[in-house]
Amino acid sequence: MNTALRIEEVRLTPILIADPPLLNVQGVHQPYTPRLIIEVVTAEGVVGLGETYGDAKFLEPARALAAALPGRSVTDVNGLYRLAAEVCGRPDGAALGGDVGGLRGTLSADKLLLSVLSGFEVALLDAQGRTLGVPVHALLGGKVRDRVDYSAYLFYRWAEHPGADTPRDDWGAALDPAGIVAQARRFTERYGFGSIKLKGGVFEPDQEIAAIRALAGAFPGMPLRLDPNGGWSVETSVRVAHELRDVLEYLEDPASGTDGMAAVAARAEGVPLATNMCVTTVQEIPEAFARGAVQVVLSDHHYWGGLRRTVELAAVCRTFGVGLSMHSNTHLGISLAAMTHVASVVPNLDYACDTHYPWQSEDVITAPHVFEGGALTVSDAPGLGVELDREALAALHKRWVEDDGRMRDRDDVAAMRVAHPDWEQPVMPRW
Amino acid sequence: MNTALRIEEVRLTPILIADPPLLNVQGVHQPYTPRLIIEVVTAEGVVGLGETYGDAKFLEPARALAAALPGRSVTDVNGLYRLAAEVCGRPDGAALGGDVGGLRGTLSADKLLLSVLSGFEVALLDAQGRTLGVPVHALLGGKVRDRVDYSAYLFYRWAEHPGADTPRDDWGAALDPAGIVAQARRFTERYGFGSIKLKGGVFEPDQEIAAIRALAGAFPGMPLRLDPNGGWSVETSVRVAHELRDVLEYLEDPASGTDGMAAVAARAEGVPLATNMCVTTVQEIPEAFARGAVQVVLSDHHYWGGLRRTVELAAVCRTFGVGLSMHSNTHLGISLAAMTHVASVVPNLDYACDTHYPWQSEDVITAPHVFEGGALTVSDAPGLGVELDREALAALHKRWVEDDGRMRDRDDVAAMRVAHPDWEQPVMPRW
Predict the structure, then answer these.
(1) Which CATH class is domain B141-377?
(2) Which of A304, B59, B205, B294 would be A309's cystine partner, CB 3.0–4.6 Å?
(3) How far apart are CA A93 and CA B251, in angstroms?
(4) Is 0.85 exceeded by the ipTM?
């Protein structure tokens, strides 16, 4: 092995980042949410960066994998999967909350491991690119576009989190159609986004239909999306599709599971159904595609095991004529750089990608990404093209260290209980 | 762009290589068969090697692509597809012999372009790997195995080609079960192959059944395969599957097209059907998979547009639980190196790969590959790990230049007419 490519050390830094009070079908985002920053250091001192979920259940396998990597090559990306199977063990099913489900569908042990792996895969690719002097997109076959379009990601939200010592911002509340339209105006004016998604599943469907109608009125011709995270019955989903069939670019995860999505798709009157819940693993693809349950897969390299696996998912979608775009969960600039690189190499990127990035007021990179015309320019610098801000990282890690344990695992249900003590895990379908 | 990665020049060298009188459903291999050697030269003088089909209909688009590449980066592999669409034009349908079909199924304009592209893609990857100091497998995510298994590829054959000035070898004729068993012994003793494939479609099915039975008797437990290149009716195919169900690892392309293969598969009594004819493009996958027409796809990077596309095909097969192995047409050591690299990175390589390589007495690399224990060791040298033998290349090119035109396009039907003037293009199914 080329010594320059040998992994010498892996550093893991769990952090807590400020997050606004964004509402969804489960509850509300916590004031602070955990992320894990991964640094893969080569024998020559090159540092590759990765980022993934930071909850305790992700940290345990991440530590096992980090300990096993020194001595291996940063080019050995395909070997990560076998290595993880060997060293990470099987996560405790009870710890997963798997039967409860959530915003990403059921969380299985395999899905958890792939989410851990994804952060390491990105860090290996970054280290490899920096060492070899080529951008990550070149390691994935080369970009086919110079800019990647993102979408405005609107949320119903409170003006502020309950309680003292919670992060504040100046976005204000958005709890009705007018508030959503105002939020959309700020998004489009500031960032130039050319499509708009509303996170739904928060209010009665009629209220969310009214919000989409208000957006359609305020932004004529703008592609619009609505995502209630599987919160509706088939009948409700069909009704919403019918009501909004003239303005929706797609309807995202209206109902739960392949059965639910297939039943909606059959009666959706041409409104494509997108998903990041029904199809989140390779195993779910054959039945969902065969039954026409989804028309757009919202890939997420954190779910699918990294950037190479995302490229493969894109090939599967292309082969079967299923659309492709990208999902986002709360993330920082390392993950956004990774998303942008992989989005740049996929020929069939059919829709603008989701990102929570504009909601994040903190970051661990020295030069946060700037959206222009709703897009990011694909970096041609070696690796991902972002640099770690060590002071910021240390401060966010300090917050994690000093946390009393309440924020170290993201739990939107528990966060909602702070304001509404009687809030219960919603039973799906909620409407 | 990093100057070291800039393409300065592309050299194309059509050659004619000696080929034994191997029989198939169409006729017989010519004494010499055309190949094209591609050299991609970077600004710093690094040379990346590629190899593909060399018939006239492949040379024309290859020349257009070669002329368009200087100034681009060797990392821009994904950009090849759009570039080819722009500069190569649409090949003349009549020149393709597309409606005639042949050993690789119908040859469409798209398939021809992908075959041309594949040679360039491999040359770019080789140049990239040499420049960056990493093996091609690392550029594809890293090998998951150190050795790649190949299979003995038996052919019915004459002792020699008719006519003077044709290449000779010492393999002797193989025209009956005893001859096939003798050929298999030499293959397994010399190369250690652990599985055996017989090219069929040459004689009455009962004679080929007898040959497989003889192999099963001589090599108990050895995985056996039979490939008549679509030469049989559904009824004949079902009968052969029934007769050989206890010894066949798979039956390859017994019948033609998705309809034929699906009909056979439904009655094949558990014998998997493999293909390099029914499924040779992305467009053919959905229907063939949905109907269960094929259980093993024999990928070929020359068909599918290169090594990255082969990795994607593997992911599609893995997703749908369809087996994967590799097909081979007559090829030299550059293509065998490329096959070995991509085979090393694919987790789901379910069967030993095909290769014609042992039949080739000539090569354009300085150190021909050596099978040990039926396998090749995956090279960790930068790029493909093979070096061009310029003297050999010049000699084989001289043969192409001096050819009177009869050998520059491979035509197994015409080659058969030299010995049997009344031979006609067989009408399928032949039996």
Answers:
(1) alpha beta
(2) A304
(3) 42
(4) yes
